[in-house]
Amino acid sequence: MKNSRWQWMEYAGLFSLFLTLISLAVGVTINFRPLYVFDIGHLQILDYTSLDQETLLKNFDHLMNYLNNPFKTILSLPDFPVSASGAHHFYEVKILFLVDYAVFFITLIPSILFIKYLQKNDRLWRLIRPFQIGMLLPVVFGFFMMIGFDRFFILFHETFFNNDDWLFDPVTDPIINVLPEEFFMHSFILFFVLLELFFAVFLFLGKNSLKQTKKKELV
Questions:
Q1: H runs (alpha helix) in the chain
Q2: Rounded Cα distance, 155 and 174, in Å
Q3: Between 48 and which of 29, 162, 177, 195 could a Cys-Cys bridge form, CB atoms 3.0 to 4.6 Å apart?
Q4: Percentage helix, strand, coil, to 5, in the chain?
């Protein structure tokens, strides 16, 4: 009975750790401003607006401040009009941002305690199989994304949004002209790369722990 209880606690710990790492990867990705700065040049975004780069980034920062700040309730951009449907979509995106942050902070301490428990009991090797499996998931999703990002992008929105407000009209919401689909593709790539790196770290910890345990047994 005791072993069963500890087993379920380890499952809960693993679940918490995965949520922490996934939410961290999401948080880093959505706030990685250098990616947008890079894409302004790489995707020639300035060709689709009359704004210069400095002004465009000022608007981008206003948008990100709205999405990240739970106390900011009205979206207002200096140089872009926002329709009612556009504002509603950004509000829904804001909710997803805040949910991600909540998941990270709620699971962070349990995840740290779980890692400390594994270290104390020489059970970091328990991370090996879950993270071996976990590292396959970004590869699989990344593969489907690369062979058909348009479909992947649509499925993503259909999963997380229950309306069509994400289908912006460039006439009423010209900001969509400076947020091209390719930028979001690059964001997904960054997310999957970060997730692979985070998972690889814990896979390494697990394998290193197993190696140390075997050395102790030989002594």
A1: 2-30, 33-42, 53-68, 84-120, 128-147, 149-160, 181-218
A2: 23
A3: 177
A4: 80, 0, 20
Query: Would you state the pLDDT for residue 122?
Result: 86
Q: If you count them, how many residues does the chain have?
A: 219
Tens of pLDDT along 67-104? Answer: 999 999 999 999 999 999 999 999 999 999 999 999 99
Three-state DSSP state, 47: helix
Tell me the C-alpha distance between 46 and 68, whole Å: 25
CA angle 67, 103, 113 (to 5 degrees): 145
Q: What is the distance between the alpha carbons of residues 134 and 138, in angstroms, rounded to a whole number?
A: 8
pLDDT in tens, 1-55: 456 666 788 899 999 999 999 999 999 999 999 999 999 999 999 999 999 999 9
Say if residues 36 and 60 touch (Cβ distance below 8 Å).
yes
For residues 23 and 161, give the distance between their C-alpha atoms in angstroms, rounded to a whole number: 19
Q: What is the pTM of this model?
A: 0.93
